[in-house]
Write a structure and sequence with these properties.
The structure is a homodimer. The first copy, chain A, contains five helices and two strands, in the order ααββααα. The first copy, chain A, is mainly alpha-helical. Chain B binds a DNA duplex through α2.
Chain lengths: ~140, ~140
DNA sequence: AAATCAATTAACGTTTACGTAAAGTGCGTT
DNA sequence: AACGCACTTTACGTAAACGTTAATTGATTT
């Protein structure tokens, strides 16, 4: 059943926790282009994949314009040499940017971890105090 | 000289490539609070550190409200147990979120790398074609 | 047939994160 | 004294990314 042909708009909103407004907006922006059955939208597996890419890009703080650029890199078909070169450049730019974000994440995780341990220590101290009190009271 | 006491607003805008408007806006939002010498702002090393945290958070796609939350975790001083517990929970939430972003980045880097190689292959083919042509022409 | 339900289009509204004048202030230089 | 320059406050403007009604429209259930 994972091989189904089409997804309805509500199926996608349920799966990815987005609103119909969002999906229609992405369609206006030409990021998705579902087929139609009458007036109803039928999303293809390709649309679903693109939606995943969009949401992943958004989690990483890319604007929709940037997400569009990245997605366009994926389904490129430029045969001309100059265009291929410029594509390589843009790939390099995005790669550099992502590596920076990667460092940012590791730093932030490290710092949060430090805070976590210091808070844990504080909590342990509070617990010890209570326990000593209990002992003193003979309970 | 890295130990200077204060930074002027233009020094910070130069170092971090932000506008004065941005720094003043962050001050309005209570993310920075520089001292004053008359009407002029004097940013402390603490302000500079906070600015770094803000910009790093932004690169990772956090809103200023979220950045504020994260920063507040760093300079916490809540003695009460319930608050410490809730702080631990929030740290865990942010950690989970950052780990998701981490996976997102690795996936995207992997995909970009694949596109890069396939484009490189295409470029190599174009080069070979030209070279064979040269050989045929005896040059 | 009436009613309910999921989907549609159209259009104005909202939040975030600043941009962009406009008008003024203090201070070192000419 | 006049000037330029960096800095200031105040306040309206704006782009992005949807939210939120409103008014319809089939389709299906009763």
């Amino acid at each position: 059943m994972t091989d189904r042909r089409y997804y309805t708009i509500t199926e996608l909103t349920a799966e990815f926790a987005v609103t119909t407004r969002t999906l229609r907006f992405y369609e206006d922006e030409n990021l998705l282009n579902p087929e139609r059955q009458g007036r109803k939208r039928l999303y293809t597996p390709r649309d679903r994949t693109r939606l995943k890419l969009i949401l992943r890009g958004k989690r990483l703080g890319f604007s929709l314009a940037e997400v569009r650029e990245i997605i366009e890199m994926y389904d490129h078909a430029p045969g001309e040499k100059g265009q291929l070169q410029r594509l390589q450049d843009r790939i390099q730019d995005r790669t550099t940017e992502l590596e920076q974000k990667h460092r940012d994440i590791l730093e932030t995780l490290e710092e949060l971890n430090q805070v976590k341990w210091s808070v844990q220590k504080r909590l342990d101290e509070l617990d010890n105090k209570k326990n000593r009190k209990s002992e003193t009271l003979g309970r």
